Amino acid sequence: MSNLYTAHAAATGGRAGTVRSDDGRLNLTLSVPAGMGGDDGPGTNPEQLFAAGYAACFLGALGVIARRQKLDLDPASTVSAQVGLRREGLSFALDVELQGHFPGLSPEQAQALMHAAHEVCPYSVATRGNVDVRLTVR
């Protein structure tokens, strides 16, 4: 099986370093949040990057599902991701909440759409059974 697309990125310096994609489109400084004992500097962090990627990917999956179901998804629709990092024994674990806002859809339609997208989104598939993911509608 071949990939439709493969992203390439490299990190230098760990959580207080940098990340850069091979094409240079992504080139970011990283900072450790104060809640993790860091200086809360101006850079982003892996959890923010994961949240941004998951939210964008999930909204894309929602669009696919909406088209399949012949639903009109308002262009103002949004998905927000909250990604938490917690200690779990000697290791660390992620915790995710995806919040959807879908103007024009009933809460029941929106929740059903969120659950259907959760079945096909690559981030959801990758984290299934390993990361606690909660789906909510605002």
Automatic annotation (TrEMBL):
- A single Pfam family it belongs to is OsmC
Which keywords are on file for this protein?
A: Membrane, Transmembrane, Transmembrane helix
One GO BP on record is: response to oxidative stress
Q: Which Gene3D superfamilies match?
A: 2.20.25.10, 3.30.300.20
Q: Which residues cross the membrane?
A: 49-66
Asked if the Swiss-Prot or TrEMBL record annotates the protein with the keyword Transmembrane, the reply is: yes
Q: Is Transmembrane helix found in the keyword set? A: yes
NCBIfam families from the UniProt entry: organ_hyd_perox (TIGR03561)
Give the family, as the similarity comment puts it: Belongs to the OsmC/Ohr family.
Q: What is this protein called?
A: Osmotically inducible protein C
Q: Which organism is it from?
A: Deinococcus arcticus
